Amino acid sequence: MTQTMTGGQAAVAALEAEDTQCVFGLIGSATMEMFDALHDAEQVRFIGVRDERTGTHMADGYARASGKAGVILAGQNGPGATNLVTGLAQAKAAFSPVVAIAGALSSSHVYRDAFQEVDQQSLFTPVTKKTWTAPSAERVPELFREAFRTALSPRCGPVLLNLPRDVLSAETNTVDLQKPSAYRNDCWPSANVQQIQKAAELLEHASQPVIIAGGGIKNTSAHQAAIDLAETINCPIVTSPGHGDAIPFHESRNAGQMGPRGNPVASRLVCEADVIIALGTRLGFNSTFYSYDNINRDARIIQIELEPTALGRYFPIDVGIWADAASAADQLRGAVQLKRDRKIADQWMSTYQDERKAWLAKRDSDADTRHPIQPSGLFKAFRSVIPENAAITLDAGTLCLQATDALNYAQPKSLFSPLDFGLVGFSFACGLGIKCAQPERPVISLMGDGGFGMTISELSTAVDSGINTVVLVMNNQCWGAEKAYQRDFFNGRYLGADISSPPFDKAAELYGAAGFRAERLADVAPAIEAALACNKPAVVDIAVDPDALYSFRRDSFTHRASQL
Fold it and tell me: Which CATH class is domain 4-182?
């Protein structure tokens, strides 16, 4: 007799064929056949979340840390599915390979204003690389293959597969599921030899070259290729914002993050360089604000990108190389035969290194240790106690933005942030996903009190599933970035900026987690050390001066500044 399986069983079998080890999700009646099949899937760990949005951030963090697809299952059509939207938009902005699965309305009920009906196919199309709706149980394995292939192919990004109720309950013949190696191509294009030679010729005459290392270096842990190239041409390396961990902090050529929100040393290098090697970076918004205020207008640009549409998109380039950043860097290093005046290049490097040392020393000496706790003093305390192998997650907001280049990232893939989506409420959930992918690493999530208040319910997920991360809540009792704008551009006419919260340390204990509190700067390091050692999910509530505000996006209010 021919064996059969339900569409739900076929879906889980397809996940197993992809060697899926973790599924984040929230149970719902629309996908009961799939949850029932997951019950028997011994290799797949199911993490029950409290909200589909935060579950998607967990899948996002899992994907970024592991290099595999992160999987989120929204069990209910309608409201369960719509909760995915923000998380998927975030993953798309970060080029994170998230595979989202959503229960969907029975096919016979579509267009009848049925209970919880919404056009999920149309809804998710703008926030994913691709969205599908399975038409039959027979095609479920095929569409799962396509979903994983699309999510993981360059440029990576989220996808969504809608699974109607009748498709999940229908029976289909058992099929032999292929392994990914049978249908997924992991080969990337090699750089064009002529373009490599053209780039090498530019570098041979450069006196002030700089490398900008972006996500193409970080996400493939290819820092050594960038360092080797920098040593060959004797130049510093800056990193694009949000990728400050692309190059290890202790590497002498690492100047840190550039751009409008970067440090002054790295930003100066890009503004004065005569040749810029954009290595796996788009030179996008957070790096440049699309302005020559943040990059030398006269620089010759060599851009290396795996995504061909990114080449020369925002700034004119002299050489565009469509290739994997690491392999192209190796090719370029082999092609360079320097004929330039070494004294000029050596002076460029020597000046940079002196400035870098001076800036790091000033960062420590200028740390404000007054009470109430000031951000610069707080970040110095963080630097003294956060383990070098820690994964650090950030939210958006003024305190987290200040922290981005104030912390030291000892190894690649240790900084995880919302990047261009600028999302508040991301950090804690992302950290839970990272911990599931890399349980041996300490994971520390920085958040403001507003962002943590959005996502505190996931403490239940952390406690129930034994996911032991540490959340550092920088509690300034306000929406800090917006309050700074109201102060600086609207004459201090505050509305909706101040917020109240329960004691987060006590709230954590009520959830079954560990809670710690730091009222003074001297309390911070001991509290973090205790949180790291407690072997439980932990929250450290840190009282930060609510008047220590900073306006990051001053460019957004130039029309206001001219009126003040």
Answer: alpha beta
Cα gap 314→301, rounded to integer Å: 12
Which of 322, 325, 318 is closest to 296 using CA atoms? 318
Could you read off the pLDDT of 267-310 as tens digits, one per residue?
Answer: 999 999 999 999 999 999 989 999 999 999 999 999 999 999 99
Q: The domain 367-555 belongs to what CATH superfamily?
A: Thiamin diphosphate (ThDP)-binding fold, Pyr/PP domains (3.40.50.970)
Pairwise CA distance, residues 161 & 103, whole Å? 9
- What DSSP state is assigned to residue 477? S
Residue ranges of the chain that CATH labels 3.40.50.1220 = 193-357
363 Cβ neighbours under 8 A, 6+ residues apart: 376, 380, 406
Handedness of CA 296, 298, 303, 308 (dihedral sign): positive
Q: Using one digit for the tens of pLDDT, what is the confidence trace for 407-448?
A: 999 999 999 999 999 999 999 999 999 999 999 999 999 999
d(CA 553, CA 560): 12
CATH superfamily of 193-357: TPP-binding domain (3.40.50.1220)
Per-residue model confidence as pLDDT tens digits over 155-178: 999 999 999 999 999 999 977 788
Q: What is the pTM of this model?
A: 0.96
